[in-house]
Design brief:
binds iron/sulfur cluster; 2 domains; alpha/beta; binds S-adenosylmethionine
Length: 502
């Protein structure tokens, strides 16, 4: 029985740590950067902020694109007047436009293994969930799943793994290599391939993260789930590896030390007070900026979803309403203006439509979250045992069209990490608005590829209009030489060349 391996797993963890707790060396005077007392104090002392104070905080963000202070963030979170919230939503959408323009990056998840030694109360993969079917994909199966996704037109994936010796760093590294080796033919022509693989996995040691850096990891994502320590230990039993709050809290410090420059943080909404979590996320961003000069590449904010044999989800006392979800997104957008924000297909279409304008920069389509779930033979019985239930299962092509109808261009760009636009460099480019131009050019090129190789006729029709509008816009923004180069690249794509970028 695989559960017997929990003791093996504990030994595995102890051997990896070799006495290093993984966090104390980063702490100033043994004090964590999550200061719960300070967070509560900020919320208490900034009650009833005046509209003029909120407007001046927003004006400053629009000017500087720097993170705001915890006090200012608490003031926004304490706004009660719904008309003022409308102004905050509007500002959030302007910040998004200023930093990321009208682009939405898209991706799909690829679940590789659900063996897990942890026991997170909200997750169907928890070790005590006896109804779960345990599987780990072989590397050949990983490749087949990636081929299916590449044939849809995806260029970016996020792989996901439970925490277990069966999915240790070597397995993870091998899955990345398998995915990067994929080459397929596009539906209409051209070729498909996965050019960026982000990883959502358990925290790792610096040495392990160096292995992932060397195989070309995109973003390393780990969500703290909740930054509130008491709640954390209630939902992550202390006899598990994930039960160690600080090992998880400092995992992005280790990633940055290992040279994995793009790190993604997040919270699982529904575990604790969302206002507390916003201030904690901001504290995390400020800490990483202070220590490494690099803030989070992305912030994720999944909301709890129903999961097989997981009663915790229904009973949660901190469910986040749709209105509060909107406030959460807008506040994070304003508080950490440079960060990417990921909205997932956990949310149903009508919610995605409502919140996407508030600052979202990335979203997934065509997603399936079972182990091996993209293959045709994946059956309903297996689907019932997924990690949780998705709210939106629309295919990528429909998603691209849906976004085009709302005026967004989907970016499949993966140039950033391949030409060194990560870490401190990208922070500067984002804050000065220069990244926007690189991204706009690369979005045009990758969108063109998608329309050439994968789009349905319907999507191609509306996509072509979006593309022409983008080209017109970019003409006014870039030097003549750059524009000529763009046009040359576009005609090379029409002639069959692929993966050209600025
Ligand atoms: N094992 C890795 C870990 O725990 O970090 C990866 C886990 S999983 C693929 C990624 C995220 O899914 C978790 O960090 C958690 O936030 C989220 N998740 C787990 N159960 C969920 C549920 N019932 N509803 C929504 N999101 C959930
Ligand atoms: Fe395991 Fe991650 Fe699920 Fe927790 S959230 S049970 S660590 S897969």
């Amino acid at each position: 029985m695989w559960v017997e391996s929990i003791n093996v797993a504990k030994k595995w963890m102890e051997d990896r740590l070799k006495g290093d707790d993984g966090f104390s060396k980063y702490m100033d005077n043994k004090k964590s950067f999550i200061d719960e007392k300070k967070i509560w104090k900020c919320l208490k002392e900034n009650r009833d902020p005046s509209p003029s104070k909120i407007r001046s905080i927003m004006d400053e963000v629009l000017q500087n694109k720097d993170c705001i202070s915890l006090e200012d963030c608490a003031a926004i979170l304490n706004v009660k007047n719904e008309d003022l919230w409308k102004e905050i939503f509007h500002t959030a959408s302007i910040v998004k436009k200023q930093v990321y323009d009208n682009r939405i990056v898209t991706f799909a998840p690829l679940y590789c293994s659900n063996y897990c030694v942890n026991n997170c109360l909200y997750c169907a993969f928890r070790r005590e969930n006896s109804v779960e079917i345990r599987r780990r994909l072989t590397l050949d199966e990983v490749k087949k799943e990636a081929e299916i996704l590449a044939k849809m037109g995806h260029k970016r994936l996020i792989t996901s793994y439970g925490e277990h010796p069966l999915s240790d760093v070597n397995y993870i590294a091998n899955t990345l290599k398998a995915i990067y080796s994929v080459r397929v033919k596009g539906k209409r022509g051209g070729r498909g391939e996965i050019r960026r693989v982000n990883v959502n996995a358990a925290p790792m040691t610096v040495e392990e993260l160096e292995i992932l850096r060397d195989v070309g990891i995109g973003t390393f994502q780990v969500f703290q789930e909740t930054y509130h320590m008491k709640t954390y230990s209630e939902v992550h039993p202390p006899d598990t590896i994930k039960g160690n709050y600080f090992w998880r809290l400092y995992c992005m410090h280790r990633a940055l030390e290992a040279g994995v420059d793009d790190v993604g943080i997040g919270v699982l909404l529904g575990l604790f007070d969302w206002r507390f979590e916003v201030l904690a996320l901001l504290s995390h961003a400020l800490e990483l900026e202070e220590k490494f000069g690099i803030g989070p590449h992305t912030v994720s904010f999944p909301r709890l979803r129903p999961a097989a044999n997981t009663p915790f989800v229904q009973n949660s006392a901190y469910k986040v309403s749709d209105e509060d979800f909107m406030k959460f997104i807008a506040t994070v957008r304003i508080a950490i203006p440079y960060t990417g924000m990921i909205l997932t297909a956990r949310e149903p279409e009508h919610i995605r439509r409502r919140v996407i304008h508030l600052g979202v920069t990335q979203t997934d389509f065509g997603s399936k979250i079972g182990i091996g779930s993209y293959r045709e033979s994946y059956n309903e019985q297996e689907a019932e045992k997924q990690q949780f239930i998705l709210g939106d299962t629309r295919e990528l092509d429909e998603g691209v069209r849906w976004l085009a109808e709302m005026g967004y261009i989907v970016s499949f760009c993966t140039a950033g990490y391949r030409c060194g636009r990560t870490g401190i460099r990208i922070m500067k480019l984002l804050k000065t608005g220069k990244e926007k131009i690189f991204c706009k050019l690369n979005a045009i090129l990758t969108y063109k590829e998608y329309l050439e190789d994968f789009a349905s006729d319907e999507t191609r029709e509306i996509g072509t209009k979006i593309l022409s509008r983008e080209i017109e816009e970019v003409k006014k923004l870039v030097p003549e030489r750059t524009f000529e180069k763009l046009m040359e690249y576009l005609s090379r794509i029409e002639d069959g060349e692929r993966d050209i970028y600025f």
